[in-house]
Amino acid sequence: MSSTELVTDLGALTAKERARIMLKDSTREAAVIAKSVDRPLRSESPEAPPPPPRSDTKSSSKKRADKGKGKQIRGFGNGGDSDSDRDEKKPKKTDGGGAVKKSSTVVDIGGAGPSDRTYGGLSAEELQAMQLRRAIRVMDQRWEAFESHNQECKLRSRMRGPVLIAMTDLPCASLAPSEDLQLDLLKFEKYMEEYKKEALFGHIRDQGMQHDETDKLRVDSGDDHLEDVLLSVEDSFLERCSYFDGASTKRGYSKVARMSLVMKNMQDTLWEEVKETDEEEQGVGQLVARFLAYRCPRDRTFNLLAEQYFRILSRDLMEGVVAQRNGFDVPTLTLVEELKDSRRVEDELTPEYIDWAISVLDHTELTKRCKNWSRDKELEDFLATFKNCRQKFVEDPDDTTSETAISLVLLKGNKLVNTQPVSSEDLSRMGWYRQNFRSGFWRYQVDSVNLPVAWQKRLGMDGKLTDGEFRFDVILKVRMDGEVIGILTGDGDVGWSSDWDMVAESLRNVNVSRRHWALS
């Protein structure tokens, strides 16, 4: 019986009580739906197509289990080429759940191959290992070529952002992305981040690098980690406000005291910057937004829950400015008020604070974060051990056998360890678009572009366009190989022209020191 069935009159409950009951029910349902960890935000991406149909038949499960060896190219530590006996004893995933659709075969090593007589009596296992090593060499060479190409593209694109800003001939402030557009793009980032996590977690399970208890992560109760998630939201909030979190706030203070001091510093600094301005009341919101965007920029990895705390703070800061301008008492910041009685001890939250947090945070995202808590901690431990691991999306323009020819590769150092194809549906949910007139994919990306005064002069920019600023948040069009190919404006895209290559190259020779351009 669910907790909601125990209440005869749900309408009699407060909003906080209903929210908490909903969270517990959703978490409990999520825990029993599947043994694997679902990737979140599938339904939250803007205009995302419906997910592809899933097939959970016994035969497909058996195929996935049987093809595990072909999926992994090279393991970590002591290697995994000769552990077939031990692999048979490991629990194999038999359900079709999980957010990432793994490849059934990563390296095409053919069928059984020629007869043993052709290869001097090699066993089937030895033949497979030989073919696999040969395939690894080919894939390593392909990766080296792709990495070299990437470095060339990034080097070529380093100066393109400033040139594109100048070529729009628009006020730089007008190029700043709107709040809604930034959130849409950050949701793409979030989906991509979760996709990578699921792929890496699947690799860890398949390689047997997890503890024996890892299978329990797929049925972990989100209720067990609610406090952990809320404490991590506070950590993310503090990290974003690091500009105001100096030595004076860190000296022996608790987290609650630090957060309160940080927000007080923020409020005082904001008032000093805006008190002399003559903006109308409706313009105060833009003042506060610019202040926060400059002092507390978002991280590329989108944290929706910390973002919601930040929006509460932003609203309160705006109301405080209006109150001060009109001679009223400045109301206490909501977060400061709620944090005041939030602890029993340092890391033990009170029920009242938990109820409030549940009432203001996104219910779906909170449930997913609770459910994925153990998985994320497992990944943190793995990456702390293997610091040189990284994941990259790789496109192979020579591959004409698949629709996308995009793979997510896992590297240890600069050596391929695992690779899997990425479906067109997942690429779309990550914000990747196919180029119209050439192979490959591109996406919009929020970037902070530095435009020193010396560059502004070289590019012939009117000072009115920059308004005395030299760093601008814009949305660039970036290919998967890192090459910048355009910029988004209010009137549409401005694409890169090869005629501007010489202009971009000339910026490398400009001395950007303030002393140099001030004396010139």
Write structural notes for this entry.
The chain has helices at 15-33, 58-66, 68-71, 84-89, 124-157, 160-168, 179-207, 226-240, 247-250, 255-274, 284-295, 304-325, 334-340, 351-360, 363-371, 373-385, 424-429, 453-458, 463-466, 501-506, 514-519; strands at 343-345, 348-349, 389-395, 406-412, 415-421, 433-434, 441-450, 471-479, 484-489, 492-495. It contains 21 helices and ten strands. The longest helix has 34 residues, at 124-157. Helix content is 48%, strand content 11%. The strands form three sheets. A five-stranded antiparallel sheet has the order 6-7-8-9-10. The protein is an alpha+beta fold and 520 residues long. Strand 9 (484-489) and strand 10 form a beta hairpin. It starts with 14 loop residues before the first helix and ends with a helix.
Task: Compose a concise summary of this entry.
This protein is of the alpha+beta class.
| DSSP strand content | 5-15%
- Beta strands, count: 10
Largest sheet: 5 strands, antiparallel
Distance between the termini: 78 Å
Strand order of the largest sheet: 6-7-8-9-10
Give the uncertain stretches in residue-range form. Answer: 1-24, 26-98, 101-117, 210-214, 515-520
Q: Average pLDDT, to the nearest integer?
A: 75
Structural class: alpha+beta
Output the radius of gyration.
27 Å
* Gross morphology: flat
Roughly what percent helix? 40-55%
Helical segment count:
21
